[in-house]
Amino acid sequence: MLKNTNILEIGIPTYNRSDQLKKCLNSILISLEGLSPEDRKLIGIAISNNSTKDIMNRNNIISIFEHKFKESGIGYFSHHITGYNIGMVNNMSSVYINSKSDYIWSLGDDDIMRFDALITVLNAIKLYKPCFIAGGWLQKSKVGYYDDQIKNDDQSDNEIYKVLNGEDKLNTFLLKNTVQQQEYIYKTSQLKTFFEKDDNIQFLTEMQPGLLAIYCMQDKGPLILLKNSAGIFRHDEPDSNSAWRHLWLRFALQDWPSLSEKIHKLKWLNKYQYSLSIGIWRNLLFTAAPCRPDIFLGINRKYDLSPFKLFYFHRFIYLKALLASISSIFFRIINLLKFKFNK
Q1: For the chain, how far is it from start to end, CA to CA, in angstroms?
Q2: Of 8, 95, 6, which Cα lies nearest the Cα of 49?
Q3: Closest Cα partner for 232 from 167, 159, 180, 309?
Q4: What is the pLDDT of residue 243?
Q5: Are 31 and 117 in contact (CB under 8 A)?
Q6: Using the 8-state DSSP alphabet, how is residue 158 labeled?
Q7: Strand order in the sheet with 112-113
Q8: Which pLDDT score, from 0 to 100, does residue 2 have?
Q9: Residue 65 contacts residue 30 (beta carbons within 8 Å)
Q10: CB atoms < 10 A from the CB of 76, how many?
Q11: 108 or 72: whose pLDDT is higher?
């Protein structure tokens, strides 16, 4: 049996999003209501505050929620202020390194927890002592920035979909995308062995949620897949300057394959798993390339895509996507000419 203390920590990296942080913390309170007083003692909350604006208001919000969480009977609550912007990747890493529980769940300040997430995750940990838990395997929930209406969710109780061991863990996990931070719960002791090795730090990028998932699955414990979401993604981020908006294609189609190649050489992935990993987001070539050939030919530098790297990792699938873009350009020109002649 697991120790009856500090089983699960919810680590929240936060940066200049006070209104969204309130929604995040309130969603945790709602999920706590599904736990018994004894199980609430097994939960810890740790906030890593990277903010550079609205500091007093943010500290006030955190103080109010700290009181509410302590009243709810959780095991512990901590709030760490970095003092300046150390960056998203470093702030997320700080959450993992400083965890005081057996399992760590990093929930972004602009994400929220599903109403039954804590009881589902805690029961999975008690039953199986997994190396890693991934939520939303069959059905992913979404919620907007300006509303609290959960979408893509039938509101049914969550449940364990699969328990996987051996090579089945990675073979199955790599069938879907690997960057859903708010859906991932890691075994803390395994994560800490990652950060103890200086050579591993070079691998930390915006894609680290998937990287750390793969590393955790080197542990002998099982992988748990949950049917419904645990953490819920906010799908309509209003920040037009967000790097994710224009660099996601590079992250998915260049950076992740490059990272996969490096960890394949370390034997964290076998040959088959490496092939699965570099191809996880290849569908983006066909959904985006026909619309924006300038991006995939490396002409639009804002997106920082290299046609040479794209060909290296995706070969003739990349060329096929580019061919599809030729017809798209042709039809765009025809429609433009029709519009001009019809004016």
Answers
A1: 76
A2: 95
A3: 180
A4: 61
A5: yes
A6: P
A7: 112-113, 231-234, 142-143, 150-151
A8: 44
A9: no
A10: 16
A11: 72
If you ran DSSP here, which 8-state letter would residue 137 be given?
S
Structure tokens at 273: 């798993």
**Cα–chain-centroid distance for residue 300?**
27
Q: How many CB atoms lie within 10 A of CB 313?
A: 19
Q: How far apart are CA 16 and CA 111, in angstroms?
A: 14
Q: Which residue has the tokens 């997430």?
A: 117
**Would you say 156 and 195 are in contact if contact means Cβ atoms under 8 Å apart?**
no
Residue ranges per domain, the chain?
A: 8-234, 246-342
DSSP symbols for 263-301: HHHTTSS-HHHHHHHHTTTTHHHHHHTTT-HHHHTT--G
Residue that has been written with the tokens 């936060």 in this structure: 14
Q: CA of 232: how far to CAs of 28, 123, 159, 315, in Å? A: 12, 19, 16, 35
Q: Report how far residue 156's alpha carbon sits from residue 124's, in angstroms, rounded to the nearest whole number.
A: 17
Integer angstrom CA distances of residue 192 from 47, 128, 160, 198: 18, 20, 26, 12
Residue with tokens 């199980």: 39
State both tokens at 271. Answer: 């040959």
DSSP 181-240: GGGEEEEHHHHHHHHH-GGGGGG-STTHHHHHHHHHTTSSSPEEEESB-SEEEE-----T
Q: Which of 216, 267, 266 is nearest to 96 (CA)?
A: 216
Output the CA–CA distances (angstroms, integers) from residue 201 to 135, 141, 197, 204, in the order listed: 26, 32, 7, 6
* pLDDT tens per residue across span 148-199: 788 888 889 999 999 999 999 999 999 987 778 899 999 999 999 999 999 9
What is the homologous superfamily of the domain 8-234 according to CATH? Spore Coat Polysaccharide Biosynthesis Protein SpsA; Chain A (3.90.550.10)
Q: Which two tokens stand for residue 183?
A: 């859906």
